[in-house]
Design goal:
Number of helices: 0
Strand content: over 45%
Structural class: mainly beta
Mean pLDDT: 95
Distance between the termini: 37 Å
Radius of gyration: 13 Å
Largest sheet: 7 strands, mixed
């Protein structure tokens, strides 16, 4: 399964963005899909995970602001990001955790 992210862009602090991670195959086959991000000059960090049964887990830094959902007919997992902060600026990646398959990333910039 190949993964392609989209939806990044420039947004003001306090704004929202929705990122998409589209799978080339049936997204329902992915047991664990993670969202990660890498800010300039920093290591890649975990943002959250969607488990096939519907459970979600989030890093403390985004809990209450970010939400991961899945649309099976569209083979897509979304990362809804609200109340964005400048420190959320990063390249965001999705990953099939079972097969260590990464997407190419999409850049999110939060700036006034």
């Amino acid at each position: 399964v190949q993964l392609v992210e989209s939806g990044g862009g420039l947004v003001r602090p306090g704004g929202s963005l929705r990122l998409s991670c589209v799978a080339s195959g049936n997204i329902f086959r992915i047991n664990s899909l993670g969202w990660y991000r890498q800010a300039p000059g920093k290591q890649r960090e975990w943002v959250g995970t969607f488990i096939r049964g519907g459970s979600t887990y989030y890093a403390d830094s985004v809990k209450g602001r970010f939400t991961i959902t899945r649309d099976v007919p569209k083979n897509t997992v979304y990362l809804q990001m609200n109340s964005l902060k400048p420190e959320d600026t990063a390249i965001y990646y999705c990953k099939d955790n079972d097969f260590n398959q990464w997407g190419q990333g999409t850049l999110v910039t939060v700036s006034s």
